[in-house]
């Protein structure tokens, strides 16, 4: 069913050894180029998507700008930047298709949590960018007030853990978006979590492959989109395409 529906892949990584890669907790990922991505997703009817910087790329923008140029229309980026990056550099990234700034609270490589609110407000004011968090939902209570007050936020991988779902849903009800990604790295019932997020806000959920699934217990499988489609029901087209297109402005 899903292979005939337009899929805006709201979360994937490009790993190109022509650009800097940094060891993270003893890990350096294998290459996964734009060519590799296109081959892997050839049957998925991908019409656009979001290249997301990983911990192993830190603040390098070269790989991302190159990937966006190769991918072309319909694709945007989410990057990591130092908290003191000048406004003009932020604006230049936005002009090249970067739509968000990531805070990787699980793996590092991004600006630190102490700069979250200030940087989130600045990138939104300067370039209409949002922030994305790779965070365990069990840690959300200490961030909830800040996140709820920010202009635009998304959280990766369904919040990762079932015990944090109530905190995640409370933020969804206040406008925070959630990525249905990384099913091979979460500790929760995927279908139940999808249904719960959609019940809280049908516009909040955005699907992504998380390719190449670095350090996940299992990599993305095409059948993950079927699980998502079954759980999403009448909202399937919104989750696979419309919600993310609206959020990323594509």
Structure description:
The mean pLDDT is 94. The chain has an eight-stranded parallel β-sheet with strand order 1-2-3-4-5-6-7-8. It has one domain (2-248): TIM Barrel, CATH 3.20.20. The protein is built from nine helices and eight strands. It is an alpha/beta fold and 250 residues long. Helices cover 34% and strands 16% of the residues.
Multimeric state of these chains? single chain
Mean pLDDT: 94
How many helices? The count is 9
CATH superfamily: Metal-dependent hydrolases
Classified by CATH, the class is: Alpha Beta
Query: How large is the radius of gyration?
Result: 16 Å
CATH architecture: Alpha-Beta Barrel
Question: How do the strands of the widest beta sheet line up side by side?
Answer: 1-2-3-4-5-6-7-8
Q: Helicity level, as a percent range?
A: 25-40%
Structural class, from secondary structure content?
Answer: alpha/beta
How would the blueprint of this fold be written?
Blueprint (H helix, E strand, L loop, with lengths): L6 E6 L21 H7 L5 E7 L9 H10 L3 E5 L7 H9 L2 E7 L11 H12 L2 E5 L9 H6 L3 E3 L9 H8 L4 E4 L9 H11 L4 E3 L15 H10 L3 H13 L2
Parallel strand pairs: 1-2, 2-3, 3-4, 4-5, 5-6, 6-7, 7-8
Helix pairs in contact: 3-4, 6-7, 7-8, 8-9
Features:
single chain; 250 residues; alpha/beta; TIM Barrel; eight-stranded parallel sheet; 8 strands; 16% strand
In short, what is this structure?
This protein is 34% helix and 16% strand. The protein has 250 residues and is of the alpha/beta class.
């Amino acid at each position: 069913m899903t292979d005939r529906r337009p899929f805006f892949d709201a979360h994937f990584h490009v790993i190109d050894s022509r650009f800097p890669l940094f060891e993270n907790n003893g890990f350096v990922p294998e290459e996964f180029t734009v060519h590799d991505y296109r081959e892997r997703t050839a049957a998925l009817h991908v019409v656009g998507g979001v290249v997301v910087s990983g911990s192993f790329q830190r603040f390098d923008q070269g790989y991302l700008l190159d990937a966006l140029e190769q991918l072309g229309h319909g694709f945007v980026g989410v990057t990591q930047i130092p908290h003191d990056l000048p406004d003009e550099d932020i604006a230049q990234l936005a002009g090249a298709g970067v739509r968000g700034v990531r805070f990787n609270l699980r793996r590092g490589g991004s600006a630190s949590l102490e700069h979250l609110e200030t940087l989130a407000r600045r990138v939104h004011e300067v370039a209409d960018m949002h922030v994305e968090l790779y965070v365990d939902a069990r840690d959300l209570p200490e961030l909830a007030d800040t996140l709820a007050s920010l202009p635009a936020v998304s959280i990766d991988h369904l919040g990762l853990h079932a015990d944090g779902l109530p905190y995640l849903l409370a933020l969804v009800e206040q406008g925070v978006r959630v990525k249905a990604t990384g099913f091979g790295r979460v500790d929760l019932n995927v279908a139940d979590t999808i249904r719960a997020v959609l019940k809280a806000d049908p516009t909040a959920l955005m699907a992504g492959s998380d390719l190449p699934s670095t350090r996940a217990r299992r990599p993305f499988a095409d059948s993950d989109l079927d699980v998502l489609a079954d759980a999403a029901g009448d909202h399937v087209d919104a989750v696979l395409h419309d919600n993310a297109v609206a959020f990323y402005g594509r």
